[in-house]
């Protein structure tokens, strides 16, 4: 286990110097490599990756090209050793109003099944670094599913969530029936999926879908602040913590406790665990090196 942890730490350190990462970093603010999203690094230490969906005329409908670009941006931030957390947001009017229905309209079963349609959307949920969704306006269908793939959801006061696929003669296809049920329980999930109704930010928070609500104009700033708090901790240990929490949705209590214990023990093979506890005893701020 110690060997694995030290290897992981070494990879994190190596990633900081990788030419490909430096090249990607230069493109963050330019937006030159992306058509459907805006990408940059934010925070006082530029340690928060920032992805803004940018199809305003289509209310950020999630076309295939947009989701591929989101995956590319996530890959770049994942490899960037300076980035400790990632924020995904849309516009004030819409986080994402759903998948691109025009793009889907004429697809056949054979195309969907044979091509494993929407499979690449899952990249958002497999990133090791914590991802925060900052949701203003509509988060419907695929937009709601995208938000639920993130680790934390912050909502603006006027945000609305829903899975209205039933109104189009289909069902959610990117985790809506699964993640929504785990987040809000069977009864509310069934109501939303079977009626196509929406819930507002207050109901979403009360049901456990959202962790905090902010005024529309403060939402993104607060999400970045949360990202900065996370990024200030050990990136290696943050990845372990994220893995342990996510396992709660997949494993039995006994299995989850065993995994948690193993990951907890694994932190004792890291220099950051030693630094964190030493700094606490010495009453100073810890200086984590992601080792």
Question: Could you please describe the fold and organization of this structure?
Answer:
The chain is α/β, with parallel strands linked by helices. Helices cover 49% and strands 14% of the residues. It contains 14 helices and 10 strands. The protein has helices at residues 2-17, 19-28, 64-79, 101-104, 109-114, 123-126, 142-149, 176-184, 186-195, 201-207, 219-231, 235-247, 253-267, 271-281; strands spanning 37-42, 48-53, 85-89, 94-96, 131-135, 138-140, 152-156, 160-162, 198-200, 212-214. The strands form 2 sheets. A 6-stranded mixed beta sheet has the order 1-2-3-5-7-10, sandwiched between helices. Strands 4-6-8-9 form a 4-stranded mixed beta sheet. Strand 2, helix 3 (64-79) and strand 3 form a beta-alpha-beta unit. It is globular. The relative contact order is 0.13. The model is unreliable at 1-8 and 10-27 (pLDDT under 50).
Q: Please report which band the strand proportion falls in: under 5%, 5-15%, 15-25%, 25-35%, 35-45% or over 45%.
A: 5-15%
Number of helices: 14
Question: Could you tell me the radius of gyration in angstroms?
Answer: 20 Å
Unreliable spans: 1-8, 10-27
What is the H/E string?
HHEEHEEHHHEEHEEHHEHEHHHH
Number of strands: 10
Tags for this model:
alpha/beta, disordered N terminus, single chain, 10 strands, four-stranded mixed β-sheet, about 15% strand, six-stranded mixed β-sheet, globular, 14 helices, about 290 residues
